Amino acid sequence: MPQVEFHFNAPDKLNYVCRLLRKAVSQGAKMGVLTSPQSLPALDDALWKLLPTDFLPHCLASDEPPLLAHSSVILASETSVLAGMPNLKILLNLQEAVPSDLAHFERVIEVVGQDEQDKAMARLRWKHYASCDMALLRHDLKT
User: Fold this and answer.
1) Theoretical Cys-Cys bridge with 82: which of 32, 38, 93, 117, CB 3.0 to 4.6 Å?
2) Are 4 and 136 in contact (CB under 8 A)?
C-alpha cells in the first residue's frame, strides 16, 4: 500500500502543483499526475509557461513511447494508464475521487486548495485511505 500525503490549503493550487512537480523532478523523481480531462489542458499549459530554467520535461500519457520515456512528468486522466508505466512510483492525484490501481505506486500526493468543495472531497478521500489502513501524512500549507 502506498503512503499518502495531503498538502492542504494551497492558496493557488495550480501554481503550487507546478512548484511541487519542479521540486520532485529536481530530486530525480518521475511522477504521474492524475487530473480531470477538463483540467488537463490548463495544467499542461501552466507547465509550459514555467521559466526556461524551471522547465519540466512532461507529456500526456497518450504521447509516443519515446517521449514518455524521456519525460519526468506524465499527465493523464485515468489511473490505469499511469499504473502500467514502468518506473512511475509517485502519483499526484488532482481528481475529486480516490484513484484506482494504487498498489502500483509507492506514494500518492493529494493537493487540496482553499475552496470548500475541494476540502470536502479531500475529507472523503482521507477517510477512504484511512479505512484502507494506508499511512497518511498531513502538510498544512497555511502554517
Assistant:
1) 32
2) yes
For the stretch 48-96, pLDDT in tens is 888 878 888 899 999 999 999 999 999 999 998 998 888 899 999 999 9
Q: Are 37 and 77 in contact (CB under 8 A)?
A: yes
Q: What CATH architecture is 3-140? A: 3-Layer(aba) Sandwich (3.40)
CB burial class (10 A; 0-12, 13-18, 19+) of residue 76?
buried
Q: For the chain, give every domain's residue range.
A: 3-140
The terminus-to-terminus CA distance of the chain in angstroms comes to: 29
Dihedral angle at the C-alpha atoms of 106, 20, 129, 112, nearest 10 degrees? -170
To the nearest whole number, what is the mean pLDDT of the chain? 93
Provide mean pLDDT across the span 113-138: 96
What values do phi and psi take at 58, rounded to 5? -140, 160
Q: Residues near 61 by Cβ (< 8 Å), separated by ≥ 6?
A: 32, 68, 74, 75, 76, 78, 81, 82, 85
- 3, 108 contact by CB (below 8 A): yes
